[in-house]
Design goal:
It holds the Pfam family HTH_Tnp_Tc3_2. The protein is of the alpha/beta class. It is built from nine helices and nine strands. The strands form three sheets. Strands 7-6-3-8-9 form a five-stranded mixed beta sheet, with helices on both faces. It has a two-stranded antiparallel ribbon with strand order 1-4. The protein has a two-stranded parallel ribbon with strand order 2-5.
């Protein structure tokens, strides 16, 4: 153990043992309480079929930055260890400069996009709900059998928002969403699509106006096959949460 070992020898030895250099799998840090809530949600929806999930409209906000570090950290692990706790990189939600947008979609179609020029508060979110969510839900689900999904951001839980949904509960239902469940929301993968397309642009945006235009164009060109495939994965996502008893899944 007192002998020095060169880097190349170390890498060769690790490969012979079955390890490969890979990026961390980024996952949110899930508390014990929220793990129970995730499990309860999965249990309540374990019998939902693909046809049931077609009635859900998914929503979320996301921020895209003009310049940022990709945060790439590489680790050595074996092929089947991608979700091993020692190979995970926990993340927490954070803000940053750039352009924030709100979007929604369902199995049927991509929904509206709303650029947000400031921090999203309850008043601004109420305008989004009344001007965009309401017409989308009543058009896509005229039989009042639609479910609207939103996460547990403070502005989503404000009294004026809850009261508005209560007044319109005869038109659609708000899906009771478990905290810290990015892996259950298929719209997160659409954000990844937008992010990858932004990075792949031949000419990168140099100001916020160009960045916003690029985001709108990329979203509008996401294929129907892409977002429908994500909704079709919901029964598998639910089974994955049940398997790990509310813990983090591979999604």
């Amino acid at each position: 153990m007192q002998q020095s070992i060169c880097e190349a020898t170390t890498r060769t030895t690790l490969r012979r043992m079955g390890y490969k250099s890979r990026r961390h799998h980024r996952v949110p840090l899930i508390s014990t309480t929220n793990r129970k809530k995730r499990l309860q949600f999965a249990q309540a929806h374990q019998n939902w079929t693909f046809e049931d999930w077609k009635n859900v409209a998914w929503s979320d906000e996301s921020r895209f930055l003009l310049r940022h570090s990709d945060g790439r950290v590489r680790i050595w692990r074996k092929q089947n260890e991608n979700m091993d706790p020692s190979c995970l990189f926990t993340t927490m939600q954070a803000g940053g400069g750039g352009v924030m947008v709100w979007r929604m979609f369902s199995w049927h179609t991509l929904g509206p996009i709303v650029p947000i020029g400031h921090c999203l508060n309850a008043t601004a979110y109420l305008s989004i709900v009344s001007d965009h969510v309401h017409p989308f839900m009543t058009t896509m689900y005229p039989s009042s059998d639609g479910y609207f999904q939103q996460d547990n951001a403070p502005c989503h839980k404000a009294r004026i928002i809850s009261n508005w949904f209560l007044e319109h509960d005869n038109e659609f239902t708000v899906l009771k969403w478990p905290p810290q469940s990015l892996d259950l929301n298929p719209i997160e993968h659409l954000w990844d699509v937008v992010e990858r397309e932004l990075r792949a642009l031949d000419v990168h945006p140099t100001n916020l106006h160009q960045l916003q235009d690029a985001i709108l164009a990329i979203w509008a060109n996401i294929s129907k096959e892409c977002f429908q495939h994500l909704v079709e994965s919901m029964p598998r996502r639910i089974k994955a949460v049940l398997k790990v008893k509310g813990g983090q899944t591979q999604y």
